[in-house]
Amino acid sequence: MGKTNKGKKAVLLGLVAMLVMVTAACGKDKAAEGNNNGGSESETITLNMMHPWTSPNVDNEVYKARIAEFEEQHPNIVIKQDGVPAAQYKTKLRTLAAANNLADINVVWPGADLDPLVAGDLLQPINDMMDNWASIMPESALAGFNVDGKQYAIPTKQSFVDIIYYNKEMFAQVGYDQFPDTYDKFIDAVKKLKEAGITPISLGNKEQWPLQSSYISIIGDRYTGSDFLPSVLEKQAKFTDPEFVKALSVIDDLTKLGAFNTDANNMDSVQGQDYFIQGKAAMHISSSTVDGRIRINNDEGDKFGIALFPSVEGGKGDPVKSAGVVQYGIAIKSGLDEKKQKAAEEFMKFFVNEDLYKELIRNGIVVPAKVDVPEDASKYLKEMLELTGNGTAPVFDSVVPTQVVDVLQNGLQALTVGRGTPEELAKEVQDAFDTMN
Amino acid sequence: MQTLKGTKLAIFFGLFPALLIYLGIAIVPIGLSLYYSVMNWNGIGSMTFVGIDNYVQILSNSTFWLSVKNNVIIMVTGLIGQLPLGLLLAILLNRGLKGSGFFRTIGFMPVVISSVMVSLIWGMIYNTEYGMLNNLLGFIGLEGWQQNWLGDVKWSMLSISIAYIWQNCGLYMVIFLAALQNIPDEVNEAAELDGATGFKRTMRITIPMIRSTIMVCVVYSISNSFRVFDLIQILTGGGPAHQTEVMTIYMYNSAFMNMRYGYGSAVSILILLFSLVVITLINRLAGEKDA
């Protein structure tokens, strides 16, 4: 008797738990509906959108505000956002792609990242929509998202990944009123900063891309010139070429000088920025996007200057170039039904237009479109445009396939903990490239 | 006969849903992994059959063996860290300590918290700049002992092991406690009459009495150690430079970061084989002692 009673109790408890869950789920749904379309009875179309706009960067706020505005003006279209932190975004995108389960609207990267998605027929070509952007989008900005004459996405942002932010006061303290313009002077400054008890460079390399993207893209370019990566891909050159090995040696040299903060490998990129903004280091190398945090929206922004990596002795690259890439292409999934397709196109036309670019510029973000820089634009943005306007070098991971990038990233991290040599790393990277299909 | 037939049918219908679920979430994926593991596949495009090529590549990859080594470290940590500590705590609680319910809850807490939280907490403790551990060392005048706990190759695996012990020993504590409470009082009383008290009683009476539970925990702890992923992924991401990478992270990176799904599947099959081999070995060893 006791036993059966217990059994009944368990079943009852289970039922109650299930009921609670079901009602809770219903409640949530209703709340969401109420928020999004004001309870109207007309047919609503829900579009899923996956994006990496979760960190506290100014441009992320602009994108999200734009989505909200779209929903306001289109009460019958609901944009269900799936915000994935940038460090995991590409992984999730690839995983969903493998399961043929992309969101209706996706944020995609050009070049090596886009290719597999196109090869798998997962994205909808948008050639018939291109008139919308004909007047403002230069060919060069679209090229990265164009495969065999078909356009797959429109970029919303231009990133320069290699901006050196430096603390003017700290540099002045060790006798540099200007940012050093040669590598030798740069190293001299690092040594002097170190002697003065200042961490020369703040680095947050836990996610591993900073050393690869922000450092090697441009240091490599200084030594090898911009033709190097394309010719490696065509097997005309090798990562083991002495120029590229020299570029890798720079990371080794900086490590040996103790240029980075000790916990460089367990801080993420945002923590790395904070460390610099808080005045704990003299330099931080990152993308033009973080200028929003470092200078534009910072009361003490004037303390910080921007510069490019200095020229190197015997380098084949042009020392005024900055490593840049168009980013955040908005792309539509292929094979949507007609209604969704139309809604998605509607969204894209609204989202990526002149207003978005202007709003981004107003917030100090460099955009790939031909939009006039407003008179009242931040002086910092004008400075950034001047600094980055002298030619563009390729960004390593936007050109080179991911599995080769992975070997490089791990190898660079190894250099920072005193494992391996630049020569060994160069060989590993070349081996990884050779063993690819 | 008639009734037996009916029962069989009933048993079948009773088991069917569970069987279906088990097939769907365990057997079929393993089969699929096996299939993918002989393919070269980027996850999106077409697959090409490459035979045992993936396995050959994996077994000749030094990073993979580094990850195996780290898995062994985690396994040993579980066996000599979590289990004895869990047992010790269980024995202490079983002594009828005042407020034992409170301590039991505290001990079990880490098991209930999501491992993402556990990792974040330990990440903060180990942080070089503002971390609790380094601050504490500084506070008691041991600045020289301050370390870059997660970023330094010398310390990273040790730091992870400690977090791993903290995370799981509460689980074994609760299992052992349940087993201890099942030992009849008469046995303990008889032991005491014969003069077996304290440590002696624990070694001679208590531990042999819960031997089968210990064995279950050993097997569980081993298979757990091969599955460890999120704790390390969040604490260090397998870095610096693969030094804290375990097999699951190696698999994740191969499949999802580098888009080599065939290769990653082959790694997952190897993980399965490794854990089966180790668990079989342990069972054999334990079985021999029984005889």
From TrEMBL, chain A:
- InterPro entries, alphabetically? Bact_solute-bd_prot1, SBP
Write down a Pfam family by its short name: SBP_bac_8
Q: Where is the signal peptide?
A: 1-24
Q: Which superkingdom?
A: Bacteria
Sorted UniProt keywords: Signal
Protein name per Swiss-Prot or TrEMBL: Extracellular solute-binding protein
Organism per entry: Paenibacillus lutimineralis
UniProtKB/TrEMBL annotation, chain B:
Name its cellular compartments. Cell membrane
What is one GO biological process annotated to this record? transmembrane transport
- In terms of domain of life, where is this protein from? Bacteria
**Topology versus the membrane:** Multi-pass membrane protein
Question: Any transmembrane segments, and where?
Answer: 12-36, 72-93, 105-125, 155-180, 205-223, 261-282
Q: Which InterPro entries match?
A: ABC_transporter_permease, MetI-like, MetI-like_sf
Q: What is its main location?
A: membrane
ABC transmembrane type-1 domain location is: 68-282
SUPFAM superfamilies with a match to the protein in the record: MetI-like (SSF161098)
Q: Which Gene3D superfamilies match?
A: MetI-like
Q: Does the keyword Membrane apply?
A: yes
PROSITE patterns reported for this sequence: ABC_TM1
Pfam families noted in UniProt: BPD_transp_1
Sorted alphabetically, the Gene Ontology cellular component annotations on this record are:
plasma membrane
Keywords per UniProt: Cell membrane, Membrane, Transmembrane, Transmembrane helix, Transport
Entry keyword annotation includes Membrane:
yes
Q: Which PANTHER family match?
A: ABC TRANSPORTER PERMEASE PROTEIN, INNER MEMBRANE ABC TRANSPORTER PERMEASE PROTEIN YCJO
Give the record's family classification.
Answer: Belongs to the binding-protein-dependent transport system permease family.
Q: What name has this protein been given in UniProt?
A: Sugar ABC transporter permease
